[in-house]
Amino acid sequence: MQAEILVIEDEESINDLICMNLEAVGYHTTPFFDGNAVSEHLRKNSSYNLALLDVMLPGKDGFELLPELKEAKIPVIYLTAKGDLGSKIKGLKAGAEDYLVKPFEMLELLVRIEKVLLRNKGLEDYIRIRDVEIFPQQRIVKRRGQEIPFKPMEFDCLLLLAKYKNIALSREEMLNTLWGVDFEGETRTIDVHVGRIRKKLDFQDVIKTVPRIGYRLEG
């Protein structure tokens, strides 16, 4: 079962955007726009793997909600415009897993979510794309039950596309995520790896080329 995520953000457009992107990669989301409503909801249902929490909310604010979420054993990532050092320290010392200041890139949020879910065992053991299963911990790829050999960089590239399926990733984002901002290679490196992945898994119609941007894996 995929992770269940609370999205607690009072600006409807931001809440909708976050939920849309999380649903696109396979997470299940429950949006809230008011701190008091979250508090009431937690008395009846606390079966969530993660909460994305704004600080400035109507009713109870994000700092007031944190102890209730911790009591319910729900890890918290703050998503907030309050970027001052005092607020960051307050949130992290109180027990938040992470603190991300608006505006932020969606890929960065997805990476941080993944890290928190891994720490708290909120992720499935494998990712399924059609007849292919990807096992991140063992670094194994199977198609119809048969293991397909992958070189390390090919596996990392496939895993990145699979984790963030249905989202267009630029070649630059993929390079920076896979090899770091100091990587001196060209973006064509990504094209080579994607070509090999498509051939090995017969994924020509699964990994789409996004013109002038990069690639999107459709799961």
Verbal overview:
By secondary structure, the protein is an alpha/beta fold. It has helices spanning 12-24, 35-42, 62-71, 85-93, 106-119, 152-163, 171-179, 188-201, and strands at 4-8, 28-32, 50-53, 76-80, 98-101, 127-129, 132-135, 140-143, 146-147, 169-170, 207-210, 214-217. It has 2 domains: 4-119, Rossmann fold; 127-217, Winged helix-like DNA-binding domain superfamily/Winged helix DNA-binding domain (Arc Repressor Mutant, subunit A, Orthogonal Bundle). It contains 8 helices and 12 strands. The radius of gyration is 19 Å and the shape is elongated.
Summarize the structure.
The protein has 219 residues and is of the alpha/beta class. It has eight helices and twelve strands.
Structural class: alpha/beta
| CATH fold name of the largest domain | Rossmann fold
**Coarse morphology:** elongated
Beta-strand share of residues: 15-25%
The oligomeric state is single chain
At the first level of CATH, the class of the largest domain is Alpha Beta
Q: Which percent range fits the helix content? A: 40-55%
Number of domains: 2
The unreliable regions are: none
Lateral arrangement of strands in the main beta sheet: 2-1-3-4-5
Say how many strands there are.
12
